[in-house]
Amino acid sequence: MDALQRLLDGRGFTSQVALDALLHYPALLALRTMSIVTIDEGRDDFLIELLTHPRWTDPYVDELDRLWASSW
């Protein structure tokens, strides 16, 4: 799960919308592979954690905006 979170966090900054969408592709491939393995191993509990725990944060929104948005 840490590897998936690092892939989500590891995307760089770009101003092109098409490239920005592709930056999530490695994390998506890792999530798909991890999901297949957890289902094959019968680890439904880990699959649920895998699908709910990692969080994506928008690199273009600063921390003050996030705090303000979460206060509503």
Give a structural overview.
The chain has 72 residues and is mainly alpha-helical. The protein has one domain. Helices cover 67% and strands 0% of the residues. It is built from five helices and no strands. The chain has helices at residues 2-9, 17-22, 25-41, 44-52, 63-70. Helix 1 packs antiparallel against helix 3 (25-41) and helix 3 runs antiparallel to helix 4 (44-52).
State the gist of this model.
This protein has helices at 2-9, 17-22, 25-41, 44-52, 63-70.
Which secondary structure elements does this structure contain, and how are they paired or packed?
Elements: H1 2-9, H2 17-22, H3 25-41, H4 44-52, H5 63-70
Helix pairs in contact: 1-3, 3-4
Helical content (DSSP H or I, runs of 4+): 55-70%
Strand content: under 5%
Helix-strand pattern: HHHHH
Instruction: Compute the CA-based radius of gyration.
Output: 15 Å
Number of contiguous helices: 5
- Please give the number of β-strands: 0
Class per helix and strand makeup: mainly alpha
Please report the distance between the alpha carbons of the first and last residues: 30 Å
Q: How confident overall, as mean pLDDT?
A: 76
Name the descriptors.
single chain, 72 residues, mainly alpha, 0% strand
